[in-house]
Specification:
Blueprint: H1 3-6, H2 8-35, H3 41-63, H4 72-76, H5 81-113, H6 124-128, H7 130-150
Helix pairs in contact: 2-3, 3-7, 5-7
InterPro entries: DctQ, TRAP_DctQ
Protein name: TRAP transporter small permease protein
Subunit structure: The complex comprises the extracytoplasmic solute receptor protein and the two transmembrane proteins.
Length: about 160
């Protein structure tokens, strides 16, 4: 299975989020032009979809080795390449693990408190639950990419 198919779910999520953002923004502009009023919910929905787009896109970039990282040290010290790849993986897993943990805690609290979004009155946890889920997806894609780099199956040049 190639890397394109590995992150298919994240690709679909990012594509849908971008399409919906474009459509609601266009609709909002058209309505505002003709009526001098706008849809109140579009900002809330757009921010939510931007989070989905950002994390899903980062997951795809992670899997295909297109994510930003500093490769200068690896090029300067080629004998340390393997340990440096592992250190990069550990540091990234630590950060993504914290995002997953604290994002999950936040989503659970939003669920328990039954808080609602200000614009649409939807449960806030519907928006927040995507943060830990997509951070977890990023950790999986990072691990897949790291294994491929360690096995020499993935070029380190983007």
């Amino acid at each position: 299975m190639n890397n394109r198919q590995d992150a298919r779910l994240e690709r679909v999520l990012a594509t849908l989020a971008l399409m919906i953002i474009g459509l609601i923004s266009l609709a909002n502009v058209v309505v505002r032009y003709f009526t001098n009023a706008s849809f109140a919910f579009t900002e809330e929905l757009s921010v939510f979809l931007l989070v989905i787009l950002t994390f899903a896109g980062a997951s795809v970039a992670m899997r295909s080795n297109r994510h930003i990282r500093i490769g200068m040290v690896e090029r300067l010290f080629p004998r340390l390449r393997m340990p440096l790849i592992i250190v990069q993986w550990l540091a990234s897993i630590l950060v993504l693990g914290m995002v997953t943990w604290f994002g999950g805690q936040f989503a659970l609290e939003e669920y328990q408190w039954e808080s609602e979004s200000p614009g649409l009155g939807l449960p806030n946890w519907w928006y927040v639950i995507w943060l830990p889920l997509l951070a977890l997806a990023m950790a999986v894609r990072l691990s897949q990419m790291t294994l491929d780099r360690l096995r020499g199956r993935l070029s380190d040049e983007p």
